[in-house]
Amino acid sequence: MARGRIRSKLRLSLIYTFGCLRPSADEGQDPHPIQGPGFSRTVYCNQPHMHKKKPLRYRSNYVSTTRYNLITFFPKCLYEQFHRAANFYFLVAAILSVFPLSPFNKWSMIAPLVFVVGLSMLKEALEDWSRFMQDVKINARKAYVHKSDGEFRRRKWKKISVGDIVKVEKDSFFPADLLLLSSSYEDGICYVETMNLDGETNLKVKRSLEVTLSLDDDESFKNFTGTIRCEDPNPSLYTFVGNLEYERQIFPLDPSQILLRDSKLRNTPYVYGVVVFTGHDTKVMQNSTSSPSKRSRIEKRMDYIIYTLLVLLILISCISSSGFAWETKFHMPKWWYLRPDEPEPLTNPVSPVYAGVVHLITALLLYGYLIPISLYVSIEVVKVLQATFINKDLHMYDSESGVCAHARTSNLNEELGQVDTILSDKTGTLTCNQMDFLKCSIAGTSYGVRASEVEAAAAKQMAVDLDEHGEISSRTSTPRGRGQEIEVENEAENSPRVPIKGFGFEDIRLMNGNWLREPHADDILLFFRVLAICHTAIPELNEETGKYTYEAESPDEASFLTAASEFGFVFFKRTQSSVYVHERLSASGQTIEREYKVLNLLDFTSKRKRMSVVVRDEEGHIFLLCKGADSIIFERLAKNGKKYLGPTTKHLNEYGEAGLRTLALSYRQLEEDEYSAWNADFHKAKTTIGSDRDELLEKISDMIEKDLILIGATAVEDKLQQGVPQCIDKLAQAGLKLWVLTGDKMETAINIGYSCSLLRQGMKQICITVMNSEGGSQESKAVKENILNQITKAVQMVKLEKDPHAAFALIIDGKTLTYALDDDMKYQFLALAVDCASVICCRVSPKQKALVTRLVKEGTGKTTLAIGDGANDVGMIQEADIGVGISGVEGMQAVMASDFSIAQFRFLERLLVVHGHWCYKRIAQMICYFFYKNIAFGLTLFYFEAFTGFSGQSVYNDYYLLLFNVVLTSLPVIALGVFEQDVSSEICLQFPALYQQGKKNLFFDWYRILGWMGNGVYSSLVIFFLNIGVIYEQAFRTSGQTADMDAVGTTMFTCIIWAVNVQIALTMSHFTWIQHVLIWGSIGLWYLFLALYGMMPPSYSGNIYRILLEILAPAPIYWVATLLVTVTTVLPYFAHISFQRCLHPLDHHVIQEIKYYKRDVEDRRLWTRERSKAREKTKIGFTARVDAKIRHLRSKLNKKQSNMSQSSAQDTMSPRSL
Q1: What is the pTM (predicted TM-score) of this model?
Q2: What structural domains does the chain harbor?
Q3: Given pLDDT bands bounded at 50, 70 and 90, which one contains residue 18?
Q4: Which residue numbers belong to the known binding site for ATP?
């Protein structure tokens, strides 16, 4: 396994200025004072056996994201089940049913409860098992661990311990938090990708201590020992304080030596590290929260309905017990057949209060059918089937990755239809981490004819919208321009050129040496040289293709080098002091190898927002080449360097509107004396020891980065995932708000905001930032006051805005957010954010993502959805009401913590607008119907008991009661919950405003719930009293016999079965053969059961023996009563829906009618008009951009017409015209 260090590689630390090169401990830096609380961890390097006993026994490297384990499953899951009001009631009822007071057989209460709870627990177990299997895969990964005598062997991650020496190879994840000891580069440098931690795709440079550089191969660890004393486990990703005791010396450690779990080694063959934190002590796991148990808002409200029914149950039970006590005291002595001379304790007229109290228990059990015990299990079954449809939806299947949508929990299906705010990660969620060089501006000329994705999609959308507004033919100039953009895109799509990763540029003027014939060829030459020289990348030759690929710190830098290569300037070699470029300076294709000596490199930081390199060419000339944010470059231009400032600024604005990321390029030629003097100061600043070193370096850098000459600008496209802009636009039309929470820098986040149309030209940006502070109490207080002042002013600005079309975007960074999330300021911040059309939070940590999500969830009281793809998104995914994970290429942490997983962001549109809308309406209607049918059924028991002197007698056979919820009415309600569609999926996508029905909770508000409960009370009254009125005072059969209790009970039960099934048929909008079979089959099943049960011997069937064939079927009054009661029961609901559809139709009613009469085919203009109405007024997305463009065009046209009118009037009044 041993491999020697790569000596041929350069010492990378000599290239970097700010990020890497710092004075080592050998040069006099003091160790950190490690003492006091929070700094108690001691790690013995290469001695893991020392950590097997307390107090040095730390947590293992095993990680778990499950909710339960073998010990906690039953107590925790049973608590969850009986936390539900209905289940708890039936648990008490099942216990009471064991005693003689129960009016039913005990198994009729116990069996349904065991079935319901058992099924729910089984579902929880299966869902948690899937999480467990994901954990098993992660914990079973293997890494090379030092065993003994310089030998490294593969070991599972979960068996790695604190103190182990680990060898990690290129493109592998770090199994724990490691202290970097050495790397394959001789100066201990390595590249790390932290996208799973902070969302950034650019590589971070880590460096080891110089004292451990000699540990350069496997054998060197044979006798290695050392001690690390450091901070305790904490969630801070960007800090680390500790000391390394090695060879009788103490060396300070900082974050640049720490390799965090779930980050990945890039561009470095291998590194060695010692394990410091393992498992749940690692920083990434410290940033995650325990997997919560989530419940939907409908389920929470359902508990309140259960409480209402419990109150109703207790009320009528008290009435029943009071009535029983009254009857016992005053009427019992007159009922000779009850033997009042030998009274039983429960019917003794002497103690009616005791009789009433005991009867209360009987009444509570008797009327228990008001509480639907099968409701929860029916909902569980329905939700599992709904989740199956989500999993099997081919429209959410990604053919490239072979990944389909997956509902990891079915508890939150209906919550998908009530989302108000989406909180999204950026990198890997909205974007696909690929930069393409698309356009550039050189010497005031814009190059690049290919349209960006945003331009092409916006042009198509605008053409469609103008067509819908009937404005295509009247204003030909603007559509023609858009048509050209679309044509360009189509040409690009049909181009035979083989696509090159990172290079989407198309313009013959610069390709194949044609730039030599351009007017400003010298400036173009300088532009290409800046691209090829100003970077920190390392070239790698692909032997198969013969082309170079580049290992760069950021995708932008790699795309610049790819572009330079395609333009004929191929960077192919880097040494310790030089870069080498093959330059093609003639149309013939011949190249010249040129060497540029790198004298200094001032690398990019988020504060500097620029990067510069000082080089000496082969002629001895010294140049400073600089690239950076346009605002930074422009303020450093010389007076004679602004020649191209005007056109370049115009092009940058155009590129920004097209959603492209831009940088300005400039240069400056230096005199030898000037450079020598500056370099002496610069070297002195580099070797300075102290806290002011960085500040001193920046001042020295500013001295040379001035008097620049502008060459041009670049525009790269951060490739969005397929369909992201269209998805965001549709979600905006559905009335959803979108917040972007990213670890990227502010400029990147803003550019992506433009790409996604979260930002647009004309939108007023509110940037809340904080100046750097040292963290003192006084300074911290001043910073908070400054932030609060910014927020207050912004709130006032938003409130005072009178333009109804004005849109605001809030942009805030992580440092400012730290203060804004304090308890005394967070609600002011939230109030401002809610008033803004879009919110972008950048440079945020995983913990801050979770805190922002919690603030939105608790502060607004509305449903939140968080979506991300990396480990840095786990906190917000778990904190949100709904967590959605993207099945990306970088790990499965987000998916493992999520409630739903999809392959790409664009599938969120269908998940919410289609499945969310359907699931919400299905569950809402299903629950309302459940309460309706149980109230209609349960109250008839109360009426009969009151009719019979509160005797506690049930009018129905025990088997009727058992079958009512479990068999005879369960299948139709499941059909409603699984197959109901008010409109098709295509209509849901065409009319996104339908989603507002769930967001506004139109189908599960108290008005509708009480309406259904009132309908149940009405139905119960009709069923009981109409049956009694028809049957009680007249002969039941032709021979003159009257009906007994079983005949009355069976007739009433038949009416109930008919009434509730006809009611659910009227409720449904969408029918297939399945619904017909289940609804009418349930009615048929009742008659079949009654016939077969009646055929059984009297010892089994009792009073039901042949009741259908001999008693009910021959009696016409039975059939008349069934028909009369059924019609009377459903008549009010039928009248209600008829009135509503005619006078106050809902959106889906209108669409259903248009589709039924095929008006969408016969009158396309009507259909188009209705579609345009079905959009929520939004200020983000393509629709908002199109509307703003149309308003702009109309304003220009009106202004032009006004000017023409004024000109015409002046001409009319002029002397010449007179």
Answers
A1: 0.72
A2: 160-287 (2.70.150.10), 375-384+914-1157 (no CATH), 406-410+418-430+721-772+781-902 (3.40.50.1000), 434-464+500-717 (3.40.1110.10)
A3: very low
A4: 425-427, 557, 604, 627, 661, 742-744, 843, 849, 872-873
